[in-house]
Amino acid sequence: MSSLLGTIDVLHTRYSRAIQDPEYRFFNGGYGDMDSYKDLVREIEEQWATDGLRSFLNAKPMTLSWTRYSHHAVGRSTRGGGCCCSSGRGSGSGTIGMESAHAEYDTEEVWLDEAVWESPLKDALPVGSQTAKMLFVRRAPDSRFPKTTSILLFMPATGDEEYESRLATLALPLLEHGIASALIVPPLYGSRRAPGQKGHYAITVAEYMTQSFALVVEGVQVLRHMALGFTVRDGEHFSIDTCFLGVAGFSWGGAMAACSAVMSRLPVACIPYVGMGSPACLCTGIMRWQINWSVLMESKRQTMEEATTDIEQLFKTLSLTRLLKSAPKPKATIASLVQIAATDDHFVSKEDGQNLFNDLETAVMDGSPSQLDWIGGGHATAFLWLKSTFVPACVSAVNALSDKMLGG
């Protein structure tokens, strides 16, 4: 109960600050360079429709630089033997980041390594966001945990700026099931923030949309890199021959996970948890108050209704429906789908949850398992049930993937 109350207190503090301080809003800088964003959309869509981004990513080879990472409950972390504050600039400052999320673990049992590399969309990203990063969490050799049989790439929820929350609530519990995790940090979050940015709030609409595009493509790049096989430390080698792959995420992370699963064109497990098919809920759901509407209206001399319609249409330029329409054949490559949606969600409507599942089903291979499970409550309830609901969903999806791939 104390941890639950602590979580509620943190969330209340964060949102109270956002309500009182207009600097903590999305799009304080207005629309930004929308022409460059639209050029990026055209380029990616052309490459996607032509060969599923193969040529695009082959021209941007992924070279990972690995460093050992150690995290401790007292809020300190070490990288490569040095020491720095684990929270970085952004941990715990968003909708789900919690100071109470720090987790103890035995370094003889659990290995953590951080990878950095150049984002394939670095030229479209602001200074400070161009280097991608992720944390790889898995069992140590000869540990008590079962052998690693799969790796899940976890996309972050809105405001989940670094690793701590996903490490505590998802990655560590999943080790009990032989599942390793890769926790990616998106552009504009934590140590990838742009200069002058407040919290996780993108300064312009163009930066927000580019952020989402870049996160999806970075996710695709990670999945394809892992599928080819990779080595971390002390000769540890992982490949799709020994470890199945999947991608999962909560809320915004669920939307990004769905898009990356489709665009990876790999037989992955896909687990969106209270996700949606586009970022549109930011302007249509309960989070709309976090947008600086006055700046947007003033920049184009729009009414509130006109600005809302404008933003909704822009958000649809990054949607699962649009990706599927232009997808090269074969369109269906997902090997296992387990989606969780909430019945009383004021962030993501029931219609949005159902539409996401309907779209994703068209991307699931014939004969592969797919299911949509509804839980009671809403978005906040779903967050509090991450360990009891999201973790089992991940295990179920991975088991179904394993049965599918091994012909069980």
User: Architecture, according to CATH?
Assistant: 3-Layer(aba) Sandwich
Class by alpha and beta content: alpha/beta
CATH superfamily (homologous) name: Alpha/Beta hydrolase fold, catalytic domain
CATH topology term: Rossmann fold
Strand content: 15-25%
Side by side, the strands of the main sheet go 3-2-1-4-5-7-6-10-11-12-13
Helix content: 25-40%
Report the average pLDDT across residues: 85
The helix tally amounts to 13
Number of strands: 13
Order of helices and strands: HHHEEEEEEHEHEEEHEHHHHEHEHH
Gyration radius, in Å: 20 Å
This entry's quaternary arrangement is: single chain
Shape summary: globular
Break the fold down into its secondary structure elements and pairings.
Blueprint lengths: L1 H19 L13 H18 L2 H5 L6 E7 L4 E4 L4 E2 L24 E9 L12 E9 L10 E6 L8 H11 L4 E7 L19 H24 L1 E2 L5 E2 L5 E7 L1 H13 L4 E5 L7 H4 L8 H8 L3 H12 L4 H6 L10 E7 L7 H12 L8 E6 L3 H6 L1 H21 L2
Parallel strand pairs: 6-7, 6-10, 10-11, 11-12, 12-13
Antiparallel strand pairs: 1-2, 1-4, 2-3, 4-5, 5-7, 8-9
Helix pairs in contact: 2-5, 4-13, 5-6, 8-9
Q: What would your notes on this structure say?
A:
- The model is unreliable at 1-14 and 73-101 (pLDDT under 50).
- Strands 3-2-1-4-5-7-6-10-11-12-13 form an eleven-stranded mixed beta sheet, with helices on both faces.
- The protein has helices at residues 2-20, 34-51, 54-58, 164-174, 205-228, 252-264, 281-284, 293-300, 304-315, 320-325, 350-361, 379-384, 386-406; strands at residues 65-71, 76-79, 84-85, 110-118, 131-139, 150-155, 179-185, 230-231, 237-238, 244-250, 269-273, 336-342, 370-375.
- Helix 4 (164-174) links the parallel strand 6 (150-155) and strand 7 (179-185).
- The longest helix has 24 residues, at 205-228.
- By secondary structure, the chain is an alpha/beta fold.
- The chain has a single domain, classed as 3-Layer(aba) Sandwich (Rossmann fold).
- It is built from 13 helices and 13 strands.
